[in-house]
Amino acid sequence: MAWIALGVVALGVATALVLTAFNKNLVFFFTPSQVAANEAPVGRTFRIGGMVVPGSVKREGVEVRFVVTDTAKSMPVVYRGQLPDLFREGKGVVAQGQLGADGVFAAREVLAKHDENYMPPDAAHALEQAKKAQKTIQAR
Amino acid sequence: MIPELGQFALALALAVAVVQAVLPIAGAAKGNAAWMAVARPAAQAQALLVAFAFGCLTYAFVANDFSVAYVAAHSNSALPLHYRIAGVWGGHEGSLLLWALMLGVWMTAASVFSSHLPDEMTARVLGVMGVVSAGFLAFMLFTSNPFDRQFPPAMDGRDLNPLLQDPGMVLHPPMLYMGYVGFSVAYAFAVSALLSGKLDAAWARWSRPWTTVAWMFLTVGIALGSGWAYYELGWGGWWFWDPVENASFMPWLVGTTLIHSLAVTEKRGGFRSWTVLLAIVAFGLSLLGTFLVRSGVLTSVHAFAVDPRRGVFILGIFTVLIGGALVLYAWRTSRIGLGGDFAPVSRESFLLANNVLLAAAAGAVFLGTLYPLVIDALGAGKLSVGPPYFETVFVPLMAPALFLMGVGPLARWKHASIPELAVLLRWALAVSLAVGLLLPLAFGRWHALTGFALALAIWIVAAALISLKKRPRGSRAHLGMVVAHIGVAVFVVGVTLVKTYESDKDLRMKPGDSVFLAGYVFRLDEVGNVKGPNYVAARARISVTKSGEPVTVMYPEKRLYVVQNMPMTEAAIDPGPTRDLYVSLGDPFEDGAWLVKVQHKPFVDWIWGGCLIMALGGLLAASDRRYRVPLPLRARAQVA
Question: Which of B235, B344, B368 faces A82 most closely, judged by CB atoms?
Fold first, then answer.
């Protein structure tokens, strides 16, 4: 009996542990429009996605700055290090990091999937959302 | 013509599979020996037909037959021959065919090595595998036919994804699939036991070698995939907790659980229902892994909208194979019984704890992998689960499991004594604590978690050696267990040291510049151009010295694969038993400088070395004599 009780307690602890870790590490996705509308959390890691604005990529040593847009709103991003092979101006990109107080998104990770024709699904989603939003505005 | 022959062979194979799925099982139920006798020849004929179809597709790749849509999508005339052959499993349709081929291999093996099994058992096992095979062949023929022609034929192929043009990727899918499909044997044994209502030690003894061999292949497959990611993706990570990786890790975790649970079922007749459930779940997760990776669900949950038939078919296969087995389980499990009793401190208890921990780990991975997909499918938002989640969960779950790996093998069955264990293990404890305290100092920086993990690794090795000393003439299975556990320890050392002490630098370098990292000086000598069979590349020459002595010269490349216009970072690695040096080339600057990333990765090769040692342990265990000799008469009488 004591053995079963111990098992139940252990299971409870394990579940609590898993769920807490899970909650802490959920990384939500926001489009540049949502970030502009202050929907994104400050001081928590999240993902943004969209298209790299052509001509916006600037390298300063190992630091690189670029602008991500969903065609409605844009936001500046800064990243240190090597960009993935398929990162290109005018192509889809997803970045994970935190929003700085200066409004610049400090990316810790830049994901551009490995396929020439392929748009990361999250980036495509952002563009789609922006398009929909614009249509509703025009309809009004 | 050849592709049509292949397709015809597949259709015939499906017909044979249906016969194999129906007659032997019905025969076993009715006691009809003639129907049961169909199982073996049907399994072998089916394997031959699928192998023939596979040969036809391979021929289409070798002969550059771009009128076959699948070949045109995954090959190119400039592609070297060995990558054209690997292209056969470079996409969805071909990998299904590879899956079916592997199933054929396992079915043939099961039909050949089952002479010591009762006829009903063989008939049921092969019949259940026939059901699996029929499902896959139908899925392939009706929704994902690799032999579909296109008109007009393509002038040339769209080339194999450059990332897959690598020796590791040639071997990774076949190994992984051998593992996935191998669990179908354990699954078939489990379902047969449920059908017959008989599950005893003999059943567990038959299931064990199959499970172990499947697990061994899966281990090698995952290690190859991880190694590939390390050197091919160009930035030196070796595990990303990416859904694709998790998809193969879940069946591995449950398979490992199953191996340990089967040990109890064989030796003590315990954990019976649990073992059967694990066998079903391990195969279910293998199916999930195959479909998750290959159906495009991970790219987008809406991928099925493109071809809804695929989604429906996959759901159907799942419902029949896993749902059916679970229903059967719920209905029949009371007949199988729970098994023998044991004391709170006994080898059974330790194995039970191991099972709970491993199953919890598998559950945690499942949650982290599938939750974002479910949320997305429900349209409730887009999110991902970060690697810190998996790391936070794994450390506390695996630490006690590693500790138990030292205790469990030395504990007695049924009733063990803690004082006795303490005496046996006192030196192991002392040595591991000392190493945990002191070894990190040798690396220059002490870190509590690092010391703890190293102590656990030494603890496992020391306990393994003690158990060898205690049983110097132990069986091959025992030796295999010891070796596999040492493999885990080696793996833990690799992970711990690379995680704690790795270092890297991103910097802008011009030819002539040098950078200092972890005692090594990397000097960029020059950057030139080279041309490969289907790519052009910039290649840097970097000489590495340590205290003035030359160590090596490294040639990282930045390639451009011309057909797909796809750039690729080809890192240069100087491997070594205690460290890898890793250099990759980033983008060029206008003034002739390059972005260069240099990394020092201590003991990283131990990660894959540990996996290979684990697999070797599996091989040793599965080759134990007792799995090959027929059962003694007494045990036979029990089964009959």
Answer: B235
Tokens of B244: 């694709």
In the three-class reduction of DSSP (H, G, I as helix; E, B as strand; rest coil), residue B327 is classed as helix
Residue B167 one-letter amino acid: P
Contacts of A25 in chain B (CB under 8 A): 385-386, 388-389, 392
Sign of the four-CA dihedral B27, B33, B36, B38: negative
> What is the DSSP annotation of B76-143?
-TTS-HHHHHHGGGSSHHHHHHHHHHHHHHHHHHHHHTTTTS-HHHHHHHHHHHHHHHHHHHHHHHHH
B419, with CB counted inside 10 A (0-12, 13-18, 19+), is exposed
Cα–Cα distances in angstroms (integers) from residue B597 to residues B234, B402, B549, in the given order: 10, 35, 22
Per the CB < 8 A criterion, the answer to whether B22 and B39 are in contact is no
Minimal-distance CA residue of chain A relative to B387: A25
Q: In whole angstroms, what is the distance from residue B368 CA to residue B348 CA?
A: 30
Identify whether the C-beta of residue A66 lies closer than 8 Å to the C-beta of residue A53: yes
Rounded CA separation B484/B23 (Å): 40
C-alpha to C-alpha distance for B49 and B58, rounded to whole angstroms:
14
Phi, psi of B541 (to 5 degrees): -115, 120
List pLDDT tens digits, range B482-531. Answer: 999 999 999 999 999 999 999 999 889 999 999 999 999 999 999 999 99
Of B299, B565, B584, the CB nearest to A82: B584
To test the contact with chain A by mutation, choose from B298, B389, B597 the residue with the greatest count of A C-beta atoms within 10 A, namely B389
pLDDT, tens digit, 9 for 90 and up, residues B580-635: 999 999 888 888 899 999 999 999 999 999 999 999 999 999 998 888 766 554 44
ipTM of this complex prediction, to 2 decimal places: 0.80
Residue B427, CA distances (Å) to B256, B431, B434 in order: 28, 6, 11
